[in-house]
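hey can u run this one w/ zinc ion bound, need the structure tokens asap thx
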Amino acid sequence: MQFLKDFGVSIFFILAFGTGIFLLSRGGVELDFSALLNRATAILSLSAGSLNGWRAEGGFTKDVFPGEKSHFISYLKEYLASRGASLGSSSLFDDKTQSALIDFQKNNSLPTTGALDAGTRAFINDDLAEDLCPSSDGNEQEDDTLESVSRDHELRDDYAPANLVLLPDEVRKNGIICVTEDTADALLSMMRAASNDGIYLRVTSGFRRFEIQEYLYDLYKKINGPDFWRGIASPGHSEHQLGTTVDLTGLSIKNASTSAAFGKSKEGSWMSLHAGDYGFVMSYPDGKESVTGYKYEPWHWRFVGVDVAKKVRASGKTLCEFLKDLSSGK
Ligand SMILES: [Zn+2]
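ok here u go:
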């Protein structure tokens, strides 16, 4: 949003122009209007924290009725507020929420039950999935599969890869997770092969848009000590924004998220042996913090394709060094 503020352009002004105008001249500076529209899509229906909460719980998964109280109702109220309703922030499904929900159902040709029923849940879940994993809408996005993303090299804050897909039911995972189509295909093959070997991997994180990374970064800062930054990328600097990177865990460590124990677990050992055959590389190996900028993260795997994964292994370099050298033509 800083970009918009820099140019003093109100978001409402942008929306009012619609999609017909692609260039806007202001004080001799030509602005790419389609880029501004991309920024406009960063207005989410929920705050990044609530969107991440909704994601982690697998979306609205059960019916909710007037009179009930739960954090799902807070998400629902926030969602209805983003559609113009004026509601408080409590977690109670009160009369006001019910009438706002009936209005919403009417406006979207849904049965006016006044409850968060299956049809309404599916409608809102679809809408929020689009916020979580924006489709490219025909906008040409560069292929950043081999982009060097590091402490000192960032992605545009509106960057989202083309071809994001939700991971299918077959993939064991925590909540709703999307990655690029190629990554999903490779992940599915890899997890099937692992299962055949009695290894049960689980995905705990995939694509994260800039706003979600920003939320997580602030959260880490609050809950971890002064060293918090060693284990998390600042917004724009995360490989997760590429849509090609996943965090994994395994059954033998009780599916603990982002656990260093994954490295020595049987699932972690299986990954060290086989991940390259499916195009995945561990970005932040042990003892390489001075090179990668990150402490050991045995759970964090980036998809680069089988050929590159094999070259990285043969080079003896970290992925970070390999991609930097690749981009500078070394
Ligand atoms: Zn990660």
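The CA atoms of residues 61 and 121 lie 8 Å apart. anyway lmk if its weird
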